[in-house]
């Protein structure tokens, strides 16, 4: 993984997008959720979530299964349309109570990249094509431009040598790093990670976490639903605990992880540590 | 039976091939918009497509040919036996291919749709770049089986006077009074026609599976 880390810094310096490592998140709010709600029938999954995420902030969302963590993430990029509430991303505001126009949805999804638990690479395309396709279709880049950018990104995640392979020939960890590169290819302002290491064994999970850590260091705004307590405590700036569709507790990561205030948080963290 | 007797059978063979290929092509092409209508967000369109597919599949092919050739052909617009058979079998193939496509599309993991949506690929790109190529691989074996079935089904066209293989066999058997040999030969021709289809399908499937197997 050292190669990937080295490449990451090199690549960023070359592209002038580098920010000092571990730069503190700015005070500008990039994502603001206001009373975001979602229910399936009578079951309330998200019960009026209010949340601010600053530009460059890394927010880890932890909590028990069924607490609404993944749904929250999926509502932010409208993979699950919320039932109510307001999503503001930069200058763009979406009122979930109203039908969303295609152009709005497009604008939202271009600004927000997403990485899935099950990678969801396109199995019938080479690794390079996986990363290039959306650049051509969405950003209108030429094949050559897209491939060039894809190769930079694959280098960045340490997988340039896999460009010509099909995803099936890559390990789970490699597939997830490719999925990260694919998402970054659209130059998103925000990256959402939905349990990115849950389908991986611990060692393969590490290589994905290393890439995410590097990404965080470049100043990317990230929201990460995770069961990786190490990542939550050491890489994220803020940790948020969810249960039953509510935010139970939210604060600077070290405070929440080491000195939780809420009984529900204590119970959850105890269960995690007892495992 | 002389070699000269074989000539009508060979002519019949070409009609069988033409009818099979033509009807399958019509079905493979028309099956796509039919599936799109079947999966449409507009319920009247969905309902219409579903009803059409059900009706087309429920009525026996021979009856479709009679409806088109004797019904439309005699009353509404003159139509040759071959065109009537092509139209009828093409229609049936379209309904069946739409169902084969539907099964193939349904088998694609929902994560593929989600990843495509998250990347903001438009509907057309999702269909063309992501879903269709994967569904094609899934549909290939069923489509090949259907093609073989369709090839055999073309024999029904003999009932409206298309001079295809079964028709020629029937004629020849009546001329020569050697029904067993003639129809055995006709049967052999059908077997010979199905072999390359089955073989091609297996080769293509094996190739695609090796490339993208999960």
What is the topological layout?
The complex is a heterodimer of chains A (275) and B (214).
Chain A: H1 2-14, E1 29-40, E2 43-54, E3 58-62, H2 69-76, E4 84-89, E5 92-95, H3 102-111, E6 112-115, H4 127-139, H5 143-156, H6 172-184, E7 190-194, H7 202-217, E8 221-225, H8 229-234, E9 238-243, E10 246-252, H9 253-258, H10 263-274
Parallel strand pairs in A: 3-8, 3-9, 6-7, 7-8
Antiparallel strand pairs in A: 1-2, 1-4, 4-5, 9-10
Helix pairs in contact in A: 1-5, 1-7, 4-5, 4-6, 5-6, 6-7
Chain B: H1 3-38, H2 43-58, H3 61-75, H4 81-106, H5 110-118, H6 123-153, H7 165-176, H8 179-212
Helix pairs in contact in B: 1-2, 1-4, 1-7, 2-4, 3-4, 4-6, 6-8, 7-8
Describe the structure.
Chain A has helices at 2-14, 69-76, 102-111, 127-139, 143-156, 172-184, 202-217, 229-234, 253-258, 263-274; strands at 29-40, 43-54, 58-62, 84-89, 92-95, 112-115, 190-194, 221-225, 238-243, 246-252. With 275 residues, chain A is α/β, with parallel strands linked by helices. The radius of gyration of chain A is 18 Å and the shape is globular. In chain A, strand 1 and strand 2 (43-54) form a beta hairpin. Chain B is mostly helical. Chain B has one domain (12-163): MetI-like (MetI-like fold). Chain B is built from 8 helices and no strands. In chain B, helix 1 (3-38) crosses helix 4. The longest helix of chain B has 36 residues, at 3-38. The interface between A and B is medium-sized, with 26 and 21 residues.
């Amino acid at each position: 993984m050292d190669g990937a880390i080295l490449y990451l810094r090199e690549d960023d310096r070359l592209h002038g997008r580098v920010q000092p490592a571990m730069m503190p998140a700015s005070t500008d709010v990039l994502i603001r959720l206001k009373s975001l709600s979602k229910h399936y029938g009578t079951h309330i999954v998200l019960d009026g979530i209010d949340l601010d995420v600053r530009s460059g902030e890394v927010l880890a969302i932890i909590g028990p299964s069924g607490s609404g963590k993944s749904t929250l993430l999926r509502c932010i990029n409208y993979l699950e349309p919320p039932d109510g509430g307001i999503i503001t991303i930069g200058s763009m505001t979406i009122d979930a109570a109203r039908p969303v126009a295609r152009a709005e949805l497009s604008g939202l999804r271009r600004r927000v990249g997403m990485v899935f638990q099950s990678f969801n690479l396109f199995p019938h395309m080479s690794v390079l094509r996986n990363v290039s396709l959306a650049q051509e279709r969405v950003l209108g880049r030429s094949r050559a431009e897209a491939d060039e950018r894809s190769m930079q990104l694959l280098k960045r995640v340490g997988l340039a040598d896999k460009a010509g392979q099909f995803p099936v020939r890559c390990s789970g960890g490699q597939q997830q790093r490719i999925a990260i590169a694919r998402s970054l290819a659209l130059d998103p302002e925000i990256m959402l990670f939905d349990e990115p290491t849950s389908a991986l064994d611990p060692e393969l999970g590490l290589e994905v976490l290393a890439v995410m850590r590097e990404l965080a260091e470049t100043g990317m705004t990230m929201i990460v639903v995770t069961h990786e307590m190490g990542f939550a405590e050491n890489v994220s700036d803020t940790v948020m605990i969810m249960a039953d569709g509510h935010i139970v507790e939210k604060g600077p990561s070290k405070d929440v992880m080491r000195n939780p205030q809420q009984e529900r948080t204590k119970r959850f963290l105890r269960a995690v540590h007892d495992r | 039976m002389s070699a000269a007797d074989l000539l009508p059978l060979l002519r019949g063979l070409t009609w069988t091939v033409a009818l099979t290929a033509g009807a399958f092509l019509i079905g493979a092409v028309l099956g796509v918009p039919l599936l799109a209508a079947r999966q449409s967000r507009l319920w009247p369109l969905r309902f219409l497509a579903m009803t059409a597919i059900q009706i087309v599949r429920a009525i026996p092919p021979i009856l479709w040919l009679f409806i088109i050739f004797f019904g439309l052909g005699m009353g509404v617009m003159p139509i040759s036996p071959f065109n009537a058979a092509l139209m009828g079998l093409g229609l049936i193939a379209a309904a069946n291919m739409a169902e084969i496509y539907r099964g193939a599309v349904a088998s694609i993991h929902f994560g593929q749709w989600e990843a495509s949506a998250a990347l903001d690929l438009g509907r057309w790109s999702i269909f063309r770049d992501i879903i269709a190529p994967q569904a094609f691989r899934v549909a290939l074996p069923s489509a090949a089986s259907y093609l073989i079935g369709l090839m055999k089904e073309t024999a029904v066209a003999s009932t409206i006077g298309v001079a295809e293989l079964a028709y020629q066999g029937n004629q020849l058997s009546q001329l020569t009074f050697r029904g067993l040999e003639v129809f055995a030969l006709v049967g052999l021709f059908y077997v010979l026609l199905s072999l390359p289809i089955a073989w091609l399908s297996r080769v293509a499937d094996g190739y695609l599976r090796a490339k993208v197997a999960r």
